[in-house]
Fold these 2 entries.
Entry 1:
Amino acid sequence: MLCVLGGLALLAQSQVTAQSMRFVRVSDDRRGFVLDDGRAFVAWGFNYDHEEQGRLLEDYWATEWPKVEEDFREMKDLGANVVRIHLQVGKFMARPEEPNAVALERLGCLVELAERSHLYLDLTGLACYHKKDVPAWYDGLPEEARWDVQAHFWEAVGGRCANSPAIFCYDLMNEPILPGEKAESEWLGGELDGKFFVQRISLDLAGRTQQQVAKAWVDRLVAAIRRHDERHAITVGVIPWALYFPGAKPLFYSKEVSENLDFASVHFYPEKGKIDQALAALAVYDIGKPLVIEEMFPLKCSAEELGTFIDGSRKIANGWIGFYWGKTPEEYRRSNTISDALTLGWLELFQKKTVAVQSRTP
């Protein structure tokens, strides 16, 4: 494929880069990640879910591709080796059984950019973050038909990305949840800053247990990816309920559900003065598979306390992914807003921890 601003020279460069970039896999002892030449790999990077204006990647990657390239260079310069990308199902499925060819082509360009940048992608799918982008036909589907669409999505993405060494993993969905005994009427959870990050995979258990529904859903989507891609790892990024309800047990990372998931992904926002509690909750997800903290940010604590959390989690975690929103530390330093100061503190912490985390030195 020829991508924007590339021409034949860029295509040739991408082919050489792809050949020199190593695939990542779960280690033989199932306790971490390694490159295909045997070297250890520790995931360290950013969620690139939106840019400084709050636009999702799919809102600008077709018309502002140089910005995407610039942001990838900036994340690489900061020390990242992984970038988590969030893909909306409404942008990638034209109809229930028909993937959007243009979106898949653009994803191919992003994969090539990752190869050239030597950045691995955590591809998180099935997002419905912008409610306006959710097709009416999709929102009205019953569970089985909705899962069919989701399987078509992942089969298309897995088919497009199977041969690239730049794929770190496929994350089936961001923070999926299930109903309790009472049936629900809405697929999306609550709104946060104009976006819907939480999504239900069922509206009604209909006599099934949560574990039965979760396993059936995971296994269905994993099978869709595996039709074309047997190599890359698959995970699900979850809300760590053990952080909010002490004693809570994992659902997606229970023995009943996690058989076909290659590693555990959890999203942690430690609270001020409660770092020990956060580390105790994290330990619940140490299930004998690699463990990645797929989201983290000093949202409820200081950057210093988040650093303490990172240090304390290094005994069991194999990766940490924060956030990058298109502005460099230098740009944040020219600002005088509280939110920019918060993000600057995070990016400075990221730079400070980069060498130690990736080398696993004290």
Note: The longest helix spans residues 338-359.
Entry 2:
Amino acid sequence: MRPVYVSATVQDSGKTSVSLGLMQVLQEQGLNPGYIKPVGQHYVRYHDTNVDEDAVLIHQVFNLLERPYCLSPIAIERGFTTKFIFNPDVAPLEKAILDCVDELGETHSMLIVEGTGHAGVGSCFSLSNARVAELVGGRVVIVTGGGVGRPIDEIAVSLALFEKHDVEVVGVVLNKVLPAKYEKIQKTVSRGLENLDTTLLGAIPYEPSLTHFTVGQLAEEFRYRVLWGEDNLSNRIEKTVVAAMEPEHVVEYIEGNTLLIVPGDRLDNILVAVIVMAQEFASDGGIILTGGIEPHPTIARLMEETGIPVLISDDDTFKVSSRMSDLGFKIRTFDTDKISTLHSLVRDYVDTDRILAALQDDA
């Protein structure tokens, strides 16, 4: 069976989410899929080697026994591209990929190959997504964001490059489609893709819960100091409120799983927030104090006793709140609810049978 190569039109389209969901669906169908991300741009140190963070996630979630290196043979370290440009020898890179594909093939009946961005990403070191798909003999599924004009335009560009490398594109998965426009977008894009001689394999609706993050992830990402509530850093955030208004108005905006951003010297708003969050919402959500100002010890004791996770930043309120727009935290191993959701979304909205049929050697 040919590998399925999961590509995308732009960064953060949802390649990893679709790959993770597809892995679960294929396992559910009795298959034994392996996984590789041949070229990784965002790596971490894992098992004494540099491994793409998406490959680490897959390795941990599915308890894979293979060497993590084989899930991520090429990690684009600092200076990698410049070094290649002045010494353009792609042969050892291609060999590393093929060696890992062969090794994974010894224990898996099929392979999910996750790309890096759109079809042309990696061209600067002769390993574009299109070339890697060609190298591993894969057939491509393109993941793109929900919409009409822009996704179709971007898909057309990707199709041209895959065609240049004689790589078959099975079809397209639309991701994050707004429910209110779902039927219209699905119908229109399906027809638009037919005009490009390709197929809509599925349209995954936008699921807000996949965008929710934890207080602990905020602290880690922006290096905020944790004052209290370490045991509740796993609290998920669904709504963010900047509490710079009068206290009586702050109360109106506090709901379950709310993150409150409040100047450290607004003791009135801090007190109101702590009381409401502790009494009405079981200390879920969290608080970020700005300006590097810690509350008076009397108030500090009250905050600590509630168990509400409280972070502090030396930055001002505007800067802290500005960081909250378009946050995109990657799924972690502990996000079992999100992983389960991805399973359901791919199973219910993607034509995996059609994908599998296209991966047969005689397809």
Note: The chain has two domains: 4-206+331-358, 211-322.
